[in-house]
Specification:
Layout lengths: L2 H12 L9 H21 L4 E17 L2 E19 L2 E7 L4 H16 L32 H16 L5 E20 L4 E17 L6 E9 L8 H14 L9 E7 L1 H15 L1 H5 L20 E3 L22 E5 L2 E2 L6 H7 L13 E3 L6 H8 L2 E8 L9 E12 L2 E14 H6 L1 E4 L9 E2 L3 E9 L3
Parallel strand pairs: 7-12, 11-16
Antiparallel strand pairs: 1-2, 1-4, 2-3, 4-5, 5-6, 7-17, 8-9, 8-11, 9-10, 12-13, 13-14, 14-17, 15-17
Helix pairs in contact: 1-4, 4-5
Amino acid sequence: MPPDRQDHKDKALNATALIPTDDSLARLERLAALSQRLLERAKARGATQAEVSCSEETGLNVSVRLGAVETVESTRDRGIGVTVYFGQRKGSASTADLREESLEATVEQACAIARYTEDDDAAGLADAALMARDFPDLDVWHPWALDTDRAVDLALACEAAGREADARIENSDGASVGSGESLSVYANSHGFVGHERDTQHTLGCALIAGQGDGMQRDGWYSTALSHLDLQAPDVIGRIAAERTLARMQPRSVATGQYPVLFAADVARSLIGHLLGAVSGGALYRRASFLLDHAGRRIFPSWFDIEELPHLRKGLRSTAFDAEGVATKRSHLVQDGVLQRYVLGSYSARKLGLATTGNAGGVHNLQVKANAGDFDSLLRGMTRGLLVTELMGQGVNPVTGDYSRGAAGFWVENGAIAHPVDGITIAGNLKDIFAGIEAVGSDVDPRSHVGTGSILIGKMMVAGEQ
């Protein structure tokens, strides 16, 4: 690398840029005032209830490949959604245009839709008594004064570190840097007004090793609310290289039943299947293998999942859900027993239950660990399959039948023996959940579902006959 280019790269990695004047609070106030005007217009047209969501998002995304810039994208998006209720008839309309005539037309369209819809007994705002009243600082706002030149240098440094790690890294799928800010206001005719602002930044790299049929691809990325919490570009590049090289010359395995260890970054997919099965929409449509399972044990007796919506610097922290309902710390699973479902007010009414403050999804789940780090889990399983990648969508949400393509590593004598691919792992999610033997302490911090690696005692692995 030429000296002047190296100097420029070092400045990009080490300099702390001055953050421009932060006007986010003033912008939130403008969105809140706009929300109130729209609510007043809906009321003037006869709406018995109304709610408004306003958002502004800005971002910068840069990608490079083989040492050259591929894309630079700067985004600035705005959205305004109006929902009105005439009794239990609902209408919604949206716009991104702040001109008065457009706002007027949006409210009118929502009202017109509501007048022509059928009554829905479950329609309406969440109960007024459930609205959030406390709004703690959750430390989720960390703007990054990232300009295009600096973003390009970070991406180039990340890719270069990976490509230079080993001569077998002969190609690249590129490296990327993304930085985004989001402002949002939710207001409704109960008098609730909630403001939120958050940031998220990401740096990642994907590499290719080998040639022809022997090519293997893998990568790594880091994501955080603050750019100061991102892994360094050279570290990400080297991890991407190590993961790619480890996959070279894979084999299959003999078909049979074996212990299966899901690495932390794929283990959260198992929790995702649980969430899909206990979500209100699946339940009231009767499209879940966990119908009527609240209060029943579906995991081992030591297994816990807790929701932590007020976690400081959590990726999905919030004081209120998408309907303004106050969020609270609670168990989804405790002592292996499913404690509740995941409900907003609409699905709760359809089921004859109460909202759990999860309109819009869950907020920072933490799966309890009962084992040590990743290496200790490997030693404990002695022999079996480590899964690091899943492919396909072979999960039946109604029956729980599970069958997915997989790749990873074969484990012998508590250590990785060789990479494997071209295999399928199968079972039923009820059996998989009940068969969890260990959850590691190696939590992957890149998701709002915090779990370590998960060891299943036995699954069917289809490979060579």
